[in-house]
Amino acid sequence: MTPLLYLVLLIFLKEVSSCREEFFVENRPIDTRYGYQYNRYGQRITSKNVTINSTIICSNLYSLGNISYAYTEKEYQQFLLITESNISTIYPMELLSFSTITKLYLRQLHITDILPGSFTSLTRLKELYLNDNELSQLSNGVYNNLYRLEILNLTNNKIQQIENRALVGVSSLIQLHLRNNNISLLYNNMFEMLNHLEFIDISQNPLEKFPFNNISDVNKLILAETALSEIDHDMSDLSIKVFDLSFCQISTVNFSYFPKTEELDLSNNRIDTVENCQFLDTFSVNLDNNQITTVGTFRDLSHLSLAHNKLEIIEKSIVNESKLILCLDFSYNEISTIEENCFHNLTSLKVLRLHHNKINKIATILFRDLVSLNSLDLSYNKIGKFQYGVFDSLNDLQFLNISDNKLLDLHQYTFHSLSNLYSLYFDNNNISTLDGYDLLGHLPNLQKISLDHNPWNCKELVKIEQILKVQVYVVPGHSYDVENFRGVSCTNTKQFTSENVSKNVFKDVAQDIEQIINEGVKNSKISNLFNEDAAENIKKTINDGVKNSKIGNFFNEDFDKSKFVQYFDRDYKQSNFFKYLENYKFASVKHEQLNGSKMEKLTALPVAPNESNNKLLVFVTVILVVISVLLLFIVYFMFDFLRKMRYDKPKHPSQIELC
């Protein structure tokens, strides 16, 4: 090989395989033994409130023995990062010149094998990152001399086997990461000498059994997405702060075996039976996405989540003794019954989720003790109305969602105690009227409201929005493909609601009856017997009697709240009610007096040919009876008036008896 070719080859290799050192600063207390540090340019600095570290970055390697870098020990910490390389095997003594580094990054290098003795010289190493490689096993003798190692990361490899003494020598290990491998078996004495171990993550492995012995100092154990089917080991002597058993295959849970924890996650299992809940000593329990139908009594919880299960009833014994609870989640179940006292004494509860169930009634005293509640979600149920007083104790409530129920109206006085309510959602109900001024009067702090997918009249909706927008943000809807106002669906067709019936139809009926009475008295022979003033007095007395009678009250009362209107509040366009009433009017009053009346217009609407008319006939009969009673009242009053006139008539002087 000529000298020129050799020189070119050296230059090429230097470009392909290169290393550089980068300095960085960590703002934390430092070891001041040396009394000075260096900046990123290697210049000495005297400040002792920062730490100077350096990372040696080497790339484009095919072997760790090919590193061309003159490494020398410095007063500051040095790390080694190998990147953009393809290293299949790590051999012994290849890292001998880097004996003082404290962190070693060997990620994404396609490593398949590490021979024993490869890390023997790294006696100061504290963190070793071997994640995202293709390792298939952990062999004995690889990590023996790493007695200062604190973090070992082997995540995202293909490890199937861990030899019995593979971790012997890493006595200072604190964190062990084995997530996403193919580990199915762990030896019982695997953690025997790891007295400082605090964190274990062996999730996403086909592990069927875990050795719970020799982990007394572990405070975070992650066994999620493994093949564990049961917990039959007594862990009550352990103190694991975070215990993750989600996405396993557990079907039965006996909480008397569980340790003292702060967070316990058993979600997404196959649990259908939960035993000895009273023995569980924890703050937070997640049992979402299981098949639980009944649970026992939990005590001293702060968070309990039972969403996506098969609960049909919430019994008072579930959380009645958990006086410190902050959050309850019973969403996505089949709950139709909630015992009245199930939330008794839960004065610290902040969040209650009951959405996506089959609840059709809320007891008046159900929320009585929830004086600290901030958020209540009752959406996606079958609630038809809220009883008066149901929200009286919720003075701190800020968020209320009652969307997707069967509410017919929104009685503002139901919310009179929610003075701190900030957001109100009632989409997808059957609410067609809303008094904006009244709502703002009862909810002075309301800032956000959502009311889409209700049977709004467009004109009424515009009025409501104009009233609310002064104080409240009305959430735009998503119904732009139909008639809408700012995305909130509405219609210009007159809605025959209970309000329309009470204010229009029955008002017209009362006026027509009054007109019939007035004309009947005016045209009767009896009225001709008296002078004009007497006739007017009779007519006035009759009108006052009608207005003050029960019959008058029948036509003047608030029909929105009456059972009568609720019974007849139906689709009047498809009924024969007005047709029968019009027939009666034609029989009583001349035809020319009814032209253009509201009744005539209503009877012009199409009528269903096959609809049963029995109830309508009954209604017409009732009207006829009412009118007959009125006529009897008139006759009675006439005779009474004549009788009084007879006795009160002045006598002729000749008829006066002298004493």
C-alpha geometry: elongated
Q: State the helix count.
A: 11
Uncertain runs with pLDDT below 50, 5 residues or more? 3-15, 27-44, 495-506, 525-531, 570-574, 585-612, 649-659
Oligomeric state: single chain
How big is the Rg?
43 Å
Number-wise, the strands total 33
Main sheet makeup = 20 strands, mixed
Q: What is the mean pLDDT? A: 79
Strand proportion: 15-25%
Class per helix and strand makeup: alpha/beta
How many angstroms separate the termini? 170 Å
Helical content class: 10-25%
Structure explained in plain terms:
With 659 residues, this protein is α/β, with parallel strands linked by helices. It has a domain at 499-647. Helix content is 22%, strand content 16%. It has a 20-stranded mixed β-sheet. A 3-stranded mixed β-sheet has the order 30-33-32, with helices on one face. Helix 4 (498-523) packs antiparallel against helix 6 (532-548). The termini are far apart.
